[in-house]
Amino acid sequence: MKITVVALGKIGLPLAVQFADSGHEVIGADVNPSVVDLVNQGLEPFPGEHQLAEKLSAAVRDGRLRATTQTASAVAQSEAVVVVVPLFVDESGVPEFGWMDSAAEDIGRGLQPGTLVSFETTLPVGTTRNRWKPMLEKVSGLREGSDFHLVFSPERVLTGRVFADLRKYPKLVGGLTPAGAERATEFYNAVLQFDERPDLDRPNGVWDLGSAEAAEMAKLAETTYRDVNIALANQFARFAAENGIDVFQVIAASNSQPYSHIHRPGIAVGGHCIPIYPRLYLWGDPEATVVSTARSANAGMPSYVVDLASKLNSGLEGVKVAVLGASYRGGVKETAFSGVFPTVEALRQAGAEVVVEDPLYSDDELVAMGFKPYHVGEAVDVVVVQADHREYANLSAASFPGVRTVVDGRRVLDPAAFDSVRFGSVGVG
After folding, report:
1. How far apart are CA 155 and CA 15, in angstroms?
2. Which of 188, 210, 232 is the last residue of a domain?
3. What backbone phi and psi angles, to 5 degrees, belong to 172?
4. Where in the numbering of this chain does the UDP-glucose/GDP-mannose dehydrogenase C-terminal domain appear (predicted)?
């Protein structure tokens, strides 16, 4: 097949490489010329995705993958189009469709009869049918269901392990018509390979959920569940700390039977997914008070950790505080909705002099984010762990000359290595 993947980000580019690796001819379309240039050289535009560098290089070298900024032209040459353009929400929780609208118009201009269009970007329920269908029909002059097929098939992978996740998890699809769903099932069976999953009630592979709305809701449900679960863990953590209890022992004990799956508490919930998708769900279901309460609880965790540091240190006014970790999670060079931003802001409001360290970012990159860089080994009064980078696991009080207080927001440090300082951790009393 000839396939176009629209948007070569941290999900789109691995998808394009996966399709090419499965033997198909792939065009990657992106509005960023520098990304397109790097891809055409066989070079990954971002680090950290396992196997991407070698697979990308091979696909470009063998002529199975190329990139362009001309989306409509690429679509016009393709039998299938997969869309992975980012969608965000504003401060009020309203989806910002600007980038996706622009991409959909480009797709419509190039859309040919017989083409399959699959949106993988996480969407509010009803968006595929009520927004993308009329837009594509209007721009292309074609009719969905007869001239072309439109489906929703959510990406369900985690950056850093995309290729493994593509094999591990069922590929969900939902069409606007049975014929569209059948076409999407055939497509994904041709471009993906699946691991055996004896733990599932049905064989791993492409699962048709019966409608685009069901597939849209499935993605929102699985990610919103995580946000609500983490919020519950954070509530347990705060109560446990107030009562001299180690919440991690409690969680391990609770999860020792099969009906409990409590997640880990922590200083923040970041990334492109969990902070955003519950708000996409709430946009369609504003009465979901459990979801809105959980989102608020998680958003309040950075301030909670800063308050904990202030109490342990008897105030933060004029105190030099090192925040460890700009990334939203360990091992991933990504700051989308990272807890570093509200943590630094809360520390500054408390009067602290804030510096930031991250092994994945250069000093210049930290400065560009508005942070003053810090290097382990420099004198500092207080340390707050924001990301669970593996490089932090072996740190000790000796790593921070003059340190008086340490608050581990991710339970990555060894408390025994900090017996000479005041040490706090989320969920440990």
Report:
1. 9
2. 210
3. -85, 135
4. 322-415
